[in-house]
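can u do me a favor
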């Protein structure tokens, strides 16, 4: 089973070197956008034609040639991904936004297995293609030594508000051995608590994220007060960008740690496949929901399910909060009612009742083999997940 995950390290180099990295990123973007252009003009082109176009671009433009050929190919693949997504969406009538491929300003450049070298201690990376960006020390790369070089499938250099990062996509086909715990758990996520499980245990929403949210607002206002195009405004924008980065890191950290702990200490994890996007439309709920980072949490639950060889089931949302977990009567309640009280005598915390329903639904799905959707995927491409969130 192929499991990809990402290790990230910050690059340390000179201003001159980072200027070269900017050029590399621009070139990757140029290749990607040229592919999109080519597709727009000719329409019936396929992945193959785009990959052939890379060679043409390299012949025509001196600087495009400087970029490693596999890196050019990776850019073409990215273009193809967005074209393919568009085609897939067109075939699917339930998807409203088809996402016509657009030109994009690139923020990263991706290498596959050539065009760079890692040092013996794996603590620095040297780019050896025509751009000659040279060697960069890496901060936070100590884990890299645990992996074989052939496990590194891709290296992506990403530009962020606070500097440049190298992301290593690692093929992690060795599953971690974990003993069965003989525990099962169902998680009901909610606005009051991050989740409530079927035994009534609650995990609170991370408060520090709320605080950061306020700081973000303040910094945003500061940006809008500064004169457009001024140096002060640029500074304020950079500050805001850094804060955003910090918040998204905190959020990810929370999701990863919690998901790992939940999956490791249970053999079966059931959660409700919330339509987060639909809920976010609801204005008042929006902030807390994005804040709580459920979507990210769910992604990591599924990821650790694969790594630890546990079963993780997403149950489609259905009456879980109204149905009585004991007698299956429908007991309607408003959002503010925190207790489920049924005429059958079942009195439970509202969320605990919901998670018990979830568990029952999960077991039902499991007995019908309906969980295979998740584990049969075989791999979660966290490279892509992290890209959309970078
Ligand atoms: Zn009942």
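np, heres the sequence
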């Amino acid at each position: 089973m192929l499991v990809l995950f990402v290790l990230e390290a910050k690059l340390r180099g000179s201003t001159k070197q980072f200027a070269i990295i900017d050029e590399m990123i621009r070139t990757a973007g140029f290749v990607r956008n040229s592919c999109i252009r080519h597709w727009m003009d000719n329409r019936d082109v396929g992945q193959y034609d785009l990959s052939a176009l890379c060679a043409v671009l390299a012949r025509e433009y001196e600087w495009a040639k400087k970029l490693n050929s596999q890196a050019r190919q990776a850019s073409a693949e990215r273009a193809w991904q967005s074209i393919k997504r568009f085609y897939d969406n067109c075939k699917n009538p339930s998807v409203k936004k088809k996402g016509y491929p657009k030109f994009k300003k690139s923020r990263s450049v991706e290498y596959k297995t050539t065009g760079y070298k890692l040092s013996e201690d794996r603590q620095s990376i040297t780019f050896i293609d025509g751009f000659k960006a040279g060697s960069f020390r890496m901060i936070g790369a100590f884990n890299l030594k645990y992996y074989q070089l052939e496990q590194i499938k891709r290296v992506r250099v990403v530009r962020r508000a606070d500097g440049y990062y190298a992301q290593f996509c690692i093929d992690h086909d060795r599953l971690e051995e974990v003993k069965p715990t003989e525990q099962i758990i169902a998680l009901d996520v909610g606005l009051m608590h991050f989740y409530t499980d079927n035994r009534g245990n609650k995990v609170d929403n991370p408060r520090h994220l709320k605080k950061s949210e306020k700081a973000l607002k303040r910094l945003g206002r500061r940006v809008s007060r500064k004169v457009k195009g001024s140096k002060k405004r640029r500074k304020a924008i950079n500050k805001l960008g850094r804060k955003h980065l910090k918040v998204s890191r905190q959020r990810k950290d929370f999701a990863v740690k919690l998901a790992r702990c939940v999956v490791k200490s249970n053999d079966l994890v059931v959660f409700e496949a919330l339509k987060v996007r639909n809920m976010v439309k609801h204005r008042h709920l929006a902030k807390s929901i994005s804040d709580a980072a459920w979507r990210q949490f769910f992604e990591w639950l599924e990821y650790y399910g694969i790594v630890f060889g546990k079963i993780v089931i997403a149950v489609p949302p259905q009456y879980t909060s109204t149905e009585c977990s004991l007698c299956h009567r429908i007991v309607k309640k408003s959002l503010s009612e925190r207790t489920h009280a049924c005429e059958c005598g079942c009195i439970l915390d509202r969320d605990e009742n919901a998670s018990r329903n979830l568990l029952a639904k999960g077991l039902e799905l499991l007995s019908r083999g309906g969980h295979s959707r998740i584990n049969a995927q075989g791999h979660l491409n966290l490279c892509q997940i992290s890209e959309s969130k970078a």
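The chain is about 45% helix and 20% strand. hope that helps!!
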